[in-house]
Amino acid sequence: MDASRESDTSRHFLRQWIEEDHAAGRTGGTVVTRFPPEPNGYIHIGHAKAVCVDFGMAKLFGGECHLRLDDTNPAKESDEYAENIKNDIRWLGWQWSGAGDGVEPGFYNASNMFDTMYQIAENLIKAGQAYCCNLTQDEWKEYRGVPEKPGRPSPSRDTDPERNLRIFREMRDGKYADGEWCLRAKIDMASPNIHFRDPVIYRIRHVSHYHLGDKWCIYPMYDFAHPIEDALEGVTHSMCTLEFEVHRPLYDWVVDRMDEQGLLVVRNGVKIRPQQREFARLNITWTVMSKRLLLQLVTEGHVAGWDDPRMPTVCGMRRRGFTPGAIREFCDRVGVTKVESESDPALLEWCVREELNRTALRRMAVLDPVKLLIENFEGTRDVELPNNPLDEAAGTRKVPFSKEVWIDRADFMEVPEKKFFRLAPDREVRLRGACIVKCTGVDKDADGKITAIRCTWDEGSWGGNASDGRKVKGTIHWVDAATGVKAEVRLYDRLFTVPDPLQDGSDQFLKYLNPDSLKTVTAYVEPALAACAPGERFQFERTGYFVADAKDSAPGAPVFNRTVTLKDGYKPA
Ligand code: ATP
Ligand code: MG
């Protein structure tokens, strides 16, 4: 990797912030970060960015990164999502560490902290720092007002603690319907930051939780729960996306209250005060990333599932053949900033190509086959080809060759254009690694479609060079018809036709679905590919990078997904 570039992106402001705290002894000797996904969907490339920042910073300072499922919002959460999130993070190359809450090291469920959260809320009520409020949501918004003008106090703002405690316990015990009462922190109705105007910290939700069932019918709000989770776990540095910046004073307020209540973790004699900082989210053009919209694509059947190779999800990218290393490299190159920007998926694809060019085995596959009959060729011969010209250790393979081979239709033109150097009537072309052939004619069906191309081979050209030294410019790939294997190949393109599918609002994005985002073809591939392992990646020579589909590929009947084409014009800045 280019060292100057690395120093630009990795010495970002978050790193400096952590470095200073750590040096000043504020971490108690261990930098602790966390990645806190909500188990209500699969993680996508944006989450992968946060994963790289959270786990990457912990690693850099020899600390811990916790995986915390932020399961404080009972609707829409499930174990299926939870398991897949874990799987995807491990696949990206990261492992959580730290004490954990009893299930496994480094792993936490926010819902395991509900008892403590509830206790903290009661303590706030007793200290006159929180009160129960029965304004309707509309009234509550109206009372809260606008930043330019102080808001109005709720009529319940000065209720005495005993009555508040009684109502809060009744809320907990299920006496009220959703929305009838809520618990609010008593902070400042005149603050220019409206998140500080007595925010709601607990609400009533009569919904079963995927782990705790009906134990609770009140649930903590994110702004209350998150700092508590961080503090209880001894997290030192809590990194999140920019939209939470305005919530930071509230985060600090909750941490201060926990400090008053004696609940902060002490590590090596140092009281750990978690701190929040924000960085710009990753935005990518030509796709959507909100979990709600991704879920809609899945449930309405616009894609084949969360792991459809066109999805920006980690499992979709894996099935597409992207590598964890390329995804991490992409996140690194995008860098950590405080300014929102849009990234081009072409950069990610470039990172994928860079890696696969170094590592993927070369194979021949003909995606749009037409038969080439070599009329004067006798018997069978083997061609020995390198598995990867950039890596001698990858070795070579033998590819059988005989008088009938498949070639790609696009490598033949009956009436060749200018600068077309491949096969055409009376012209010569080299069959990769084998020999030089000259076209002698074509067979056509009743509609005039070419059904076979006829040729003869130059018997002095075995290996690919003419014995008289004449130059043959074009080289094309081929697959022996007698031994080639039929394979389904899925050619993926962008899921949307415009860079910003949300340009007309999130209810309009479906009209920009690309009708040609998936094309399935029947190809012929060289025999070595019959035995490939699901998930194995290849470069199909002259065509692109492909992966054996992890679900549908079977021994003898491989299915390949196009990961990326071989080249596009893209060069990173
Ligand atoms: P979405 O908005 O896509 O539905 P979310 O933010 O609700 O996602 P969470 O599960 O709450 O999803 O996110 C877990 C972590 O991932 C959070 O810390 C969040 O800030 C971070 N994250 C989510 N999307 C992005 C993104 N596009 N870029 C960087 N970080 C992100
Ligand atoms: Mg969220």
Structure in a nutshell:
By secondary structure, the protein is of the alpha/beta class. It contains 13 helices and 29 strands. The site of adenosine-5'-triphosphate (ATP) has 14 residues, from helix 3 and strand 8.
Question: How would you summarize the topology of this molecule?
Answer:
Layout: H1 3-10, H2 13-23, E1 32-35, H3 45-60, E2 64-69, H4 79-91, E3 107-109, H5 114-126, E4 130-133, H6 137-144, H7 161-172, E5 182-185, E6 200-204, E7 218-220, H8 222-233, E8 237-241, H9 248-260, E9 266-267, E10 270-271, E11 275-279, E12 282-284, H10 291-299, H11 314-320, H12 324-334, E13 341-343, H13 345-359, E14 361-363, E15 365-366, E16 369-374, E17 381-386, E18 396-401, E19 404-408, E20 428-431, E21 435-444, E22 450-457, E23 475-476, E24 479-480, E25 485-492, E26 518-525, E27 537-540, E28 544-548, E29 559-565
Parallel strand pairs: 1-2, 2-3, 8-11, 12-13, 14-27, 16-22, 20-23, 25-29
Antiparallel strand pairs: 4-5, 5-6, 6-7, 9-10, 15-26, 16-19, 17-18, 19-24, 20-21, 21-22, 25-26, 27-28, 28-29
Helix pairs in contact: 3-12, 8-9, 12-13
This protein binds adenosine-5'-triphosphate and magnesium ion.
